[in-house]
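Final report, closing paragraph on structural work. Over the funding period we assembled a curated collection of sequence-structure pairs, and we close with a single example.
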Amino acid sequence: MGGMKALAPTLPRLMRTALLVLAGTSLLATGHAQTTSPTSAAPPAIRTLGTPDFAQIVQRYGPAVVNISVSGTRLITADSKDNSANAKGADSEDPTQLFLRKFQEQFGATGASMQIPVSGRASGFIVSADGLVLTNAHVIAHATEVTVKLTDRREFTAKVLGSDAKTDVAVLKIEASNLPTVAIGKPADLSVGEWVLAIGSPFGLDNTVTTGVVSAKSRSLPDDYTVPFIQTDAAINPGNSGGPLFNARGEVVGINSQIYTRSGGYQGLSFAIPIDLAQSVQRQIVATGHASHGVLGVSVQEVTQALADAFKLPRPVGALISEVRTDTAAAKAGLQPGDVIVGIDGHAILASSDLPLWVAMAVPGQQMQIDVLRNGRAIQTRATLEDPTLAKPLADSLANVPVLPQLGLAVRPLLPVEQRAAEARHGLMVEGVQPEADKAGIAPGDILLAINHVPVTSVEQARALLAQAKGSVALLVQHEGDKNYIALTLKSKV
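Its predicted structure, as stored:
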């Protein structure tokens, strides 16, 4: 239960001087090159900025960072996987679950389960003087008691106002007043390479400070979150989860949430939730006790140079719509597969990972202006976002899409623009997959090119080929430009 952080050593004075001397030597050499070769223009010198005053940031805002202790119970079953946020990325199964599974296999029982105690320590930070605290949802996922400890050693039993697993944000409330608070910054103003600072409680070591730089922005991770993470190389370790990420001006720009690791500890890849998204969730939770996120009803992918050429785009930017689910906000707004979203409510969409942030911060019923490029022509439309609890599941949205039941695939003919983009003169676009096909490695957006070496030209022809096949078939599938054969066992004909 918890996140992660680490300390970057400062350069000794002598080493800093040596670096400055080397830089000066380099500039002199450039100047000499200009004299001897006046036609070659020297690049402008990069301005040198001083190191932020980390000590002042810690002194001023460190008291607003809290330590969080949780205790509770968690239900473990032999059959189900633990999908809680704090279990993501685990390299092995829970040992209790393995024990239950062996017990079930040995004695022939079913539905074996066990309630086990859980406890942990993590971080958070105070956002209002009357006791509102932000942390991660996975920190308090199984908690029945949450204790918040301040830097002055005061401790409070916190009330969980609500949490949102979709964004991994939770809001706590402690009964206190005149508390120190953090200053809030704008993640949009962050630049890659900019200094950042993290404060938290890695491995229970309260108020540990670590520094680093912004490694990337709007980073999508392969999980269930709808978050464009801020990636940093600030050292984050278990116990840092829920702690603040500060910019060089001492403003909170994110909540430290996840790391990529093979060892269980810091390995240079840390991820923070943008604070503007977290505050949007906070406002909803304070008002209603829960958070809702609007649903647009599209699947999008990145625009490559080849796709930009095919879709007549001046450069590879935007979010390419690969699927529009029926009876959704996107369908009602007239969006189509092949459209490229380049703006939403006045915010530029430069990459597909930019889109989830603005949709996630919008609430159901909110109307959004969407700027689209369709066949190189600019189009503007408005979509009223839906409530995810009312949106149709994917299976229902594929009701009118032809299905190849023996393969467990919903497919349709390729659009002309998709044929050009994929450089495929034939094939079927995969719109939906059932578990067997998914396990075999077929995903929505793939193109089914051939069945048993016979090129697929239509849905009717594919059905005829499958009617003659027995046992298993070899499918030639194109995934993001790569073509591979996949063997799939045919389902029984109904």
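Confidence is low (pLDDT under 50) at residues 1-38, 80-92, 391-397. Residues 298 and 324 are 5 Å apart (CA to CA). We thank the funder for supporting this effort.
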